[in-house]
Amino acid sequence: MIDVSDDAVIRGEDLIESGDLDGAYALTMGVTQHQPENARAFNNLGVICHLQGRNEMAAEALSRALALDPTPDTAVNLFHVYMAMGSFERIKAFLTEQQDLWRPQDLAEINLRLEAFKASRQ
Fold this sequence. Notes:
Layout: H1 6-18, H2 21-34, H3 39-51, H4 55-68, H5 72-85, H6 88-97, H7 104-121
């Protein structure tokens, strides 16, 4: 039987922190399948997939989390995934779509990352 409680989400986060990404993925995927409205689990799934280099899957999971519960932390996670994917047009569209979520510290980091991204493309 799959544990889909809040404890399962927390255990998944502990597995991420300990570096057991495969275990975290399996546990968190189970939660998302049984609780398709659990934004925290989808955010965690996106983080796991990004750390595993599966950025398309990470973007899908984080987009789902953002649709369920638009938080600045999830938006920042999705920004990092889009940066890793290297799509400047997608990044620009995303920043515009989510402009109400950005905190001042997020904007400072985003601007620095975008400048470095643009410089690397020249």
